[in-house]
């Protein structure tokens, strides 16, 4: 009797198990189709995303073209854009910094570090690079006084954005007088003089014509030469400029 009961219960349990499995299989006959649908949806989404990214890139490119055509806004954008500017008519400050970091001789890195250790915040790399960038782009094009005065203000205010905007506006105003092919460019001697005097005002806080202390002369020369790493003969021009700084006592007077 007990065995019969157990047999009945076992049969019921086995039947129930098989029945439940069959029910579950019967309840989900479309699982392979659902997997195929999910795969198709993912493929469609991937294509849509790629198309969207392509559209976004086109919009950005058009926006850059429009911005570059605007006078002040266009030039400021080109001079300060992270990716190196719009078009090829101006070298951006961030791109200049990257090039100096990659290409400048070791003496530049050492000189900047020693000047910062000695003179503190005013000799931070970003301020030095800004002064060198302005001298490289603007010396011989705009009055050197504008660049040296900018370095003097930068020492006090630390406002890079403001000084770069002022510089960009002055550069645009001057270049607007010429066609692109005939835009003026400073000579290595002009660039060296303005760069040395800008660094002397920014870092050493020297007045116009005040000589660079002997213990700092080589540091200043290495620092400035690093900003013109690709200009032949610039190291010699910088050495001359440091030695002759007293002769430029009235170079930036009105």
From TrEMBL:
<dbReference type="GO" id="GO:0048564">
    <property type="term" value="P:photosystem I assembly"/>
</dbReference>
<protein>
    <submittedName>
        <fullName>Uncharacterized protein</fullName>
    </submittedName>
</protein>
<feature type="region of interest" description="Disordered">
    <location>
        <begin position="20"/>
        <end position="42"/>
    </location>
</feature>
<dbReference type="InterPro" id="IPR037736">
    <property type="entry name" value="PSA3"/>
</dbReference>
């Amino acid at each position: 009797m007990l065995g019969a009961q157990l047999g009945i219960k076992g049969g019921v349990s086995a039947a129930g198990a098989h029945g439940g499995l069959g029910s579950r299989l019967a309840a989900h006959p479309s699982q392979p189709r659902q997997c195929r649908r999910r795969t198709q949806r993912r493929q469609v989404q991937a294509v849509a995303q790629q198309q969207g990214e392509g559209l976004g890139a086109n919009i950005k490119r058009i926006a850059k073209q429009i911005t570059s055509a605007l006078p002040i806004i266009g030039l400021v954008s080109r001079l300060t854009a992270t990716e190196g500017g719009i078009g090829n008519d101006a070298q951006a400050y961030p791109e200049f910094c990257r090039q100096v970091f990659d290409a400048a001789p070791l003496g530049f890195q050492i000189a900047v570090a020693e000047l910062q250790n000695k003179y503190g915040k005013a000799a931070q790399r970003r301020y030095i690079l800004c002064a060198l960038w302005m001298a490289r782009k603007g010396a011989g094009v705009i009055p050197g006084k504008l660049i040296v005065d900018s370095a003097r203000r930068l020492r006090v205010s630390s406002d890079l954005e403001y000084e770069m905007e002022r510089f960009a506006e002055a550069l645009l105003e001057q270049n607007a007088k010429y066609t692109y092919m005939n835009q003026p460019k400073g000579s290595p001697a002009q660039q060296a003089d303005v760069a040395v005097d800008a660094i002397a005002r920014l870092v050493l806080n020297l007045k116009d014509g005040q000589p660079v202390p002997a213990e700092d002369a080589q540091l200043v020369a290495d620092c400035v030469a690093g900003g013109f790493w690709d200009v032949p003969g610039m190291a010699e021009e910088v050495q001359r400029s440091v030695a002759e700084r007293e002769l430029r006592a009235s170079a930036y007077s009105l």
